[in-house]
Structures are given as C-alpha cells and as structure tokens.
Write a structure and sequence with these properties.
By secondary structure, the chain is α/β, with parallel strands linked by helices. It has a single domain (about 1-315), classed as TIM Barrel (Alpha-Beta Barrel), CATH 3.20.20. The chain has helices at about 20-30, 50-60, 95-110, 135-150, 175-180, 205-230, 250-270, 305-315, and strands spanning about 1-5, 35-45, 80-85, 110-115, 160-165, 190-195, 235-240, 270-275. The chain has an eight-stranded parallel barrel with strand order 1-2-3-4-5-6-7-8, surrounded by five helices. The protein is globular. InterPro entries: GH.
Length: about 325
C-alpha cells in the first residue's frame, strides 16, 4: 500500500494563511523519505462564468496556471501527484466540463499519476460535487473522456478514477447514486477513492466504535456500493482522504492510529492500495473547528504529535 498526504492548507472555505513552499517541501520530504509517496492537490471547474466571490472564497484562481508547488517537485523525490478535478458549476454544464478536463490533461498530465474525476459526488453537501447539478453525468461522461484525452496525448500510465464519501446512511443513503452508475459504462475506471472521516465531526468516538465504523465504511464501499455499480473487485480502493481533528477532548494520534490499523488489516481482502491523509497543515488552528484542525502540523507549521506518528507509520510500512 502506498501512503500520501494532501499538502495544502485549505479545507473548503477555511484557510488562515498562504502556503509556505519551503515548509511544505521539508515536511513532505520527511514523510516520504524518498520512497513512493502520493501528494494530493485539487483544481475546480466552476462553470463558464463563475461568481468572483466564489472563486475568491475557494481560493481557486489560477489553478490551471500552476499548482501550489513547482511542477518538477511533484515528480521528484519519489512523489506521485494525485490530482482531483472537482465539478462545482452553479448550473449543469457537461460541454464546459469536458473542455475543462481537456485543459487539465494538457496542462498537468505530464506530472500526474492519478487523475480523480469528480469529488464525492454521492453526497449533496455544499462545496462538494454531490451538490452540483449534473454531477452523475460529469462523472460517467468525464472518466472515459479523460481516458481518451490521456491516451491521445501519450499519457496512458495515468490512472483515472473518482471518489465518494463514506457511507451516506446518515443522509438517507446513496443507493440511487450507485444505481445510476450501474447504467453507465465504467470500464475506464482504474480506482475508486473513499473520503473517510468517521470521527471528524460531532462528539468524539470511542476507539472500538471507531474501529467498527472504519471497517464498515471500507466493506460497505467494496461489498455493497461498488457491487451495485458493477465495479469489479479488481478495481482498487484508494483511501484518498482521511483524517481526524486535533481539538480539546480528542486524541488525534489515537484516532489516526486506529483508522490506519483497520485499513492495513483490510487492505489485502478489500484491495486497498493507497492511503492519503488530509492533510499536512491545519487550515485554521485558532478556529476551534474541526475543518480548521485536520493537519499534522499547525497553520504555522509547528509539528503536532500526529506528524511523528505518521512519519513512523510510513517508514515502518
């Protein structure tokens, strides 16, 4: 199983300060130690005429010009870029979306290892793709479109997939989403990503309950959701986002250790091949909110105990 991290310092609308490339480079080098290490980044499609206020609040201006770190950084030191293309238009725009994918492939395919087409389209939460009109079509049409564009440009090794949030029973279930996917040709899907945050929000979760929730999320995806969509067991799962906040009354290290141990235990049986933490740096340490406190370091890059935990976990894997 490969390991990785989201290297930025933004969580949705939350971001207290600009990224410091020098600090990011140093910390990621320590985590990866020269071995294959996945670095996650995001670009966003907001439609043909996006609201400037939304562009500013999401911090997405200039994403097709450059990512937070220089291009060559993503392909050196054993790093592999996991690039998410998020679909967030105010109105359905399949043609614009496919054209945007072409531009992403043209700009970034040469430094990308994994290309994720849509972000968590199974949950209708604001600022996640599941809240966007036309998201299922964006996924089912976007994946084969991206595959063709990659192949035509000579980038066949790039793997193409999509991601979903952990079991959505608390939102009434997401079976309708998977049933719609079952109607599409998903043969171009190389992997399916899982956003895994069983104890991130609400009250703290006891360790044994956290173990059970983590295993349920993995098994529900493999044995129920992917089976419903007709995606075979040979298509790997990437735990592409996972984390736990460092807030009063919570033990971030214990939570991360519990979730990682379950993923490792289930990896062979459920074909889990990538594990990425969200994220390297807090979005806003002083906020006192979960979204602000997922990092392995503070928003000023002071190390938390969780940094050393993850460094050792990757080293000893």
């Amino acid at each position: 199983m490969k390991y990785g991290v989201y290297a930025g310092g933004r969580a949705g609308l939350v971001c207290s300060r600009e990224l410091d490339p020098r600090q990011v480079g140093k910390l990621v080098d320590e985590l990866g130690a020269g071995r294959p290490f996945v670095v996650r980044e995001y670009v966003h499609f907001l439609g043909a005429d996006p609201d400037p206020a939304v562009v500013m609040s999401l911090g997405v201006a200039g994403e097709l010009q450059r990512l937070p770190m220089p291009d060559d950084w993503y392909v050196s030191g054993g790093r592999e870029l996991d690039l998410v293309v998020s679909y967030l238009p105010a109105e359905a725009d399949l043609a614009g979306w496919l054209a945007f994918l072409d531009r992403v492939v043209e700009r970034y395919a040469g430094i990308t290892r994994y290309l994720q087409v849509t972000l968590e389209g199974n949950v209708p939460i604001p600022y996640l793709d599941g809240s966007s009109p036309g998201v299922v079509e964006a996924l089912t049409e976007g994946i084969p479109h991206a595959r063709r564009a990659l192949d035509a440009a000579g980038h066949a090794p790039v793997r193409v997939g999509f991601s979903v949030a952990e079991p959505a029973e608390w939102l009434g279930g997401d079976d309708a989403f998977w049933e719609r996917l079952a109607e599409a040709d998903l043969s171009a899907v190389d992997y399916v990503g899982l956003g895994l945050y069983p104890d991130a929000f609400g009250t703290p979760v006891p360790v044994e309950m956290l173990r059970a929730m983590t295993e349920h999320a993995l098994r529900h995806l493999r044995e129920h959701s992917l089976a419903t969509a007709g995606i075979p067991a040979g298509v790997p799962i990437h735990v592409c986002e996972t984390g736990s906040p460092s807030l009063p009354g919570r033990d971030q290290v214990a939570s991360l250790a519990t979730m990682l141990s379950v993923v490792r235990e289930q990896a062979a049986a459920l074909n889990v091949t990538v594990y990425e933490l969200f994220g390297l740096r807090d979005a806003d340490t002083a906020s006192g909110e979960a979204l602000g406190a997922f990092g392995l370091v503070t928003d000023e890059y002071a190390r938390k105990p969780s940094f050393e935990f993850y460094r050792r976990a990757v080293r000893d894997a």
